[in-house]
Amino acid sequence: MAAPRGEFTSRFGFLMAASGSAVGLGNIWGFPTNAASNGGAAFLFTYLILAFALAYPALMAELIIGRYARANAVTALRTISSGNKTRLAALLVGFIGIVTVSFILSFYGIVSGWMIAFFFDPIARLLGASQLSAWLTNDAVMRNSLFVVLFMLVTIYIISAGVKEGIEKWASRLMPSLIVILLLLIVYVLTLPGAMDGLRAYLVPDFSLIADPSLLVDAMGQAFFSLSLGVGTMLIYGSYISSNENLPTIGSLVALLDVGIAVMAGMLILPAMYVALASGVEIYDDAGGLIAGPGLIVSVLPSLLTTMGAIGVFVAIAFFALMTIASLTSSISMLEVPVAYAVEHHELERRRAAMLIGSAITVISLVIVFNFDPLFDLVVTVTTEVSQPLLGFAFCIFAAWIWQRSEILEEIKQGCPEVESGIFWKIWPFYVKFICPVAILVVYFQ
Ligand code: PHE
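That is the input. Now the predicted structure with phenylalanine docked in place:
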């Protein structure tokens, strides 16, 4: 007999866990820099529309399938399929999702490891350990290996403890702290010289860019990655929601939290970059765009923080604590996907499954660390730009074309008896059936 499945004990617990999965490195550095290089508020505006019109319906598809089947992605997709061919497709999609999310975790863990190293750096400086500080901030194989292992051990530890004692408990502690730290940092950074230029770059729209296909592609990719879609994360979290929860409402709260925190992160990162500019730090790359990605977080911001003197040390601790928390609440949701599969499908004990799978993913991370240049970008691109959108497409097809509409309705009705007469049921089925798959394919072939 398999062990009984876990369940989130409260709506708050689920919201913290799901928004914790959604809010990650993608929000805090992906979103702001995407916005800055794509016409500021024009990107913000497009992102908001895409997040609610396309990503939210796809998120709902995963949550509903998950709660109905109360199982891991492979079993869940097979449960809603009929006929041998669709059941085979279900196996394939579920399995590719598990492999994809494991590879996403393998590169995510490396970047999260950098965040932990940069969190310890100001502490080392505070203690006068300048050699240690130099080691922590110097991009080297040894440092990267140690910190990815450390990060993965924490992720494994939380997942071993299960849904209630691990995921829910830690997300409920970490997410409120994340929001408080983010707000404090925004308030502080906005008082510094140059911050208003950053806010302007972020919030004043350049509408000439709004029809630019690359803006649409970036905004769509950002929305899907940010809501953790396509790889079964939201499906497995959905499978732990109690039957009497109102799914359309809690789904929209997750989307609102994710978008809200991304927008807030923009109010921190862009002003911070322009504060850095005002203090003489280079913020533009060779092509004239704003420095984005790792360069922004591990070079521009630390350079800014060192110009701030004593207070910079505390701002650095707060900022990298924020990044580490954001990473951790996402990484646990990633590891939960293969672990839930192993526990339910192969009747492995949770602790063992978390340890075995977590270790295997850590080994992949180490292989990437040792072969960074050829592998890192490749893994990021294949998982997030190829696999994730295609899987998102497949989930929409399963929810709208393969699964029976009456069953979907019954499932939602459990926690929302009036759904049939509401706006959700008037719009959502049409969206997942036609708009979402077409839009995903259009973007994909861009
Ligand atoms: N949503 C996370 C972020 O924004 C990344 C993620 C992708 C998490 C896929 C889980 C699954 O950083």
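The pocket of phenylalanine is lined by residues 21-22, 24-27, 101, 104, 225-226, 228, 231, 233, 330, 333-334 (CB under 6 Å).
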